[in-house]
Amino acid sequence: MNSSDVGTARRRRFDELVATFHQDMYRFAAWLSRDRTVAQDVVQESLLRAWKSLDSLRDEAAARHWLLTIVRRENARYFERRRLETVDVDDLTPSQEALLANEPDHELDDMRDAIYRLDDDYREPLVLQVLMGYSTKEIGELMGLKQGAVLTRLHRARSKLKDEMDNEMAFGQSES
Amino acid sequence: MNCEDYREAIGADPSYDGGEAHVSACAGCLAYRSEMRALDQKIGRALAISVPELRMPELPDVDTAAVVSLAERRRFTAPVWMAVAATLVLAAFVGVRMYGSNVTYPSLADEIVAHLDHEPYALRVTDEPVDERRLAKVVPANLAHMNHDAGLITYAQTCVINGRKIPHLVIQGEQGPVTILLLPDEAITDAVPIEGESINGIILPVGGGSVAIIGERNEKLDTIKQNVMNSVTWST
Questions:
Q1: Which domains does chain A have, with CATH numbers?
Q2: Burial class (CB in 10 A: 0-12, 13-18, 19+), A110
Q3: Could you read off the pLDDT tens digit of each residue along chain B, which spans 236 residues?
Q4: Looking at the DSSP assignment, which residues form a beta bridge with residue B181?
Q5: Positive or negative, the Cα torsion across B147, B149, B155, B157?
Q6: To the nearest whole angstrom, how far is the Cα of B207 from the nearest Cα of chain A?
């Protein structure tokens, strides 16, 4: 195989990975950054980094974990570079708002709003478990946490969401 | 199992299927489980936001001459080729790791941070120590002496930093895994901090070389630094 063939095979391998995992990368980035525009930037940077270090991915079965790890680091770097302030949910840019609203289902909007307001430490493991199907062990590996800490964060995240949704429901009933 | 234990388990993972004996006898926990599972469906729907069309970035050329495909490596299957294949694969492996991405970094710290992305599986939370023979292979006696005073070593791999093969180790810290890179040929005069939103580390001068230590953001590195400094001795 000459170097041109190797280059073509490398690009094909990369394209297949991106086609398979782009959605996961974007959604993970969006919920980490809480901003659709930032998520697109983070995914772009992550794809670039993944392309450069593709040859270090030796096990195809590990591709998603590898890509999400890169997204996680790129997201951290993005915020490090921009030094963005923590955003207040009542003072959002259109790009941040776009993550939350525009659903005809108000309950879904309320849930997104509640997830949005979760602390990063709680939101990230929840996204990995519910959206990515990660086990608590895998979440611990990605986040560098002991499994017990992951379980605690997940339990607290759901408790907070449940309380928020119960409050919304009670508020809705008192309004009507 | 009591109600509190069961609800904690279900709250952490609504698909949890243990504690059947308890839940079958406890109407409150049965209702709680149903509630948590319904909540999880709503969370799943809320998280599944629409995804915009992919915008592929402009990808730079890579030095494919240094990359040997797996298919090409696997072609050498006949016994007569085994010795040749072993040599080629080893050469290709070293070549890719040293030159494959053809990327240069503005500083040693930048290259170290980038390197952490390359081996995410190194950062596993585990209490399983790395095999002694593997550790001896990655940290050979003619390079350095390192004992276990630094902490429980759970990963050991020979990697390339700045074109040189170096031992990449991981120990278990309080907040999670801590990466240790032994850099016997990277002489620095002063400590170089490595700070980030998700990481916290330092490159320390040790003898004629240096040692990089990188942990999670909240990891307290002082004790680890001291232990690593005490446990590493360069042989050269």
A1: 1-90 (1.10.1740.10), 101-176 (1.10.10.10)
A2: buried
A3: 899 999 999 999 999 888 899 999 999 999 999 999 999 999 999 999 999 998 888 888 876 554 433 333 333 333 333 433 433 343 333 333 333 345 567 788 888 887 776 666 677 777 778 888 888 888 888 778 776 677 788 888 888 888 888 999 988 888 778 999 999 888 888 888 887 657 788 999 888 889 999 988 778 888 888 888 887 878 76
A4: B168, B212
A5: negative
A6: 30
CA distance A176 to chain B (A): 23
Complex-level ipTM: 0.84
Q: Look at residues A130, A155, A122 and name the one whose alpha carbon lies nearest to residue A32.
A: A122
Any B CB within 8 A of A79 CB = yes
Helix axes A3-33, A36-52, angle to 10 degrees: 150
- The interface residues of chain A toward chain B in range 6-35, judged by CB-CB distance below 8 A, are 6-7, 9-11, 14, 18, 22-23, 26-27, 30-31
Q: Nearest-CA neighbor of B170 among B109, B206, B224?
A: B224
User: A31 with A119: CB under 8 angstroms?
Assistant: no
Interface of B with A in 88-127 (CB under 8 A): 96-97, 100-101, 103, 114, 116-121, 123-125
B119 and B158 share a domain?
yes
Residue of chain B whose Cα is closest to the Cα of A125: B12
Instruction: Determine, for residues B117 and A53 on separate chains, whether the beta-carbon distance falls below 8 Å.
Output: yes
Q: Which has the closest alpha carbon to B113: A70, A167, A150?
A: A70
Number of folded domains that form chain B: 3
A119-A120-A122-A123 Cα dihedral, nearest 10 degrees? 110
